[in-house]
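Hi all, a correction to my earlier message: I attached the wrong file for Sugar ABC transporter substrate-binding protein. Here's the right sequence:
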Amino acid sequence: MRTNRRSALAVLAALALSAGAAACGGDDGGSSSTSSGGGGGAKSGSSDEGGTIALLLPETKTTRYEEQDKPLFEAKVQALCPKCKIIYQNANQDAARQQQQAEAAITNGAKVLVLDAVDAKAATATVNRAKQSKIPVIAYDRLISGAPIDYYVSFDNVRVGKLQAQALLDKLGTTDGKQIVMLNGSPTDPSSGDYKKGAHEVLDPSGIKIAREYDTPDWSPDKAQQETEQAITALGKDKVAGVYSANDGMIGGAIAAMKSAGIDPKTVPTTGQDSEVAAIQRILVGEQYMTIYLAIKKQAESAAELAVDLIKGTQPPASLVNNKVNNGSGDVPTVLLDPTAVTKDNIKDTIIADGFHPASEICTGEFASACTEAGIS
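and the right structure:
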């Protein structure tokens, strides 16, 4: 009897140790995340349980991702689903790293992937891997072609290119004998191809000569600066009438190249996108002509709403999902938002009015007087 009692006590002790180990395990400490509890997927239609959502962004050279997309997405998720956990990773323009991050997120219990692909072709494998685990994927900002994604959230990218090109032509006035340099975005980003397509639809029939055109790897400002330096050397510093750039970071590099060559950027109209603080400041003092304002708050919050709907097993409202885009794998339910062209004349009514950047962040030092002139205080 004493032997049986000892055996029973040993079994009970082993069970207790096993339960304690299970409660303490499972955290690899390898990802940046915000959590308010939860973990694992909620039951269909549940509103009081959480789940894990992975937000995977592509790079940090474009300032919007860390400064806008990430915090706005996280805030909206937490407002809609306080018990949801967010796994956040940025791939720093490394497609292989992003694939590893997605795999780690799946291993760590992600029930939804919100994926802004570094390389759209490489991301197909990530989507297929998620589907094997029955995890839905929201393509964020960049379309992933030929893959079974569940939703796509972005802007009308072809229209972005058209707005940029038309603004440049309007500023140039006549096109007779004029030539421009064209800086497109990364060739691995399908959005870059859309911007390029839209721009060419406006520029090609206009009569303007595109003297040099580059597809800039990684959206790199440094590489855009080198490309512009090459173009100025080849064409002559007095022969560049304007520069089309697909985003603000690259035009910053191009403007640096112009200054280095002795060209006053105030005499050469230029385009951009993303409404970065530095770009808005350049526009205020006349060194950059325009940028594209993207309502990133609406984009990030729309993606967050879709992710939470997928966690809870609820159908998103028709007012949110307003379009369909065929990505080669089928028609993808899409949230498609409108871009806005911004020049010095409407910074106050767009960037400032929407709270995208506060005046206190823009109107610093040498830019204070230019803000006053534009009616920004």
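Sorry for the mix-up. The two ends are 87 Å apart (CA to CA).
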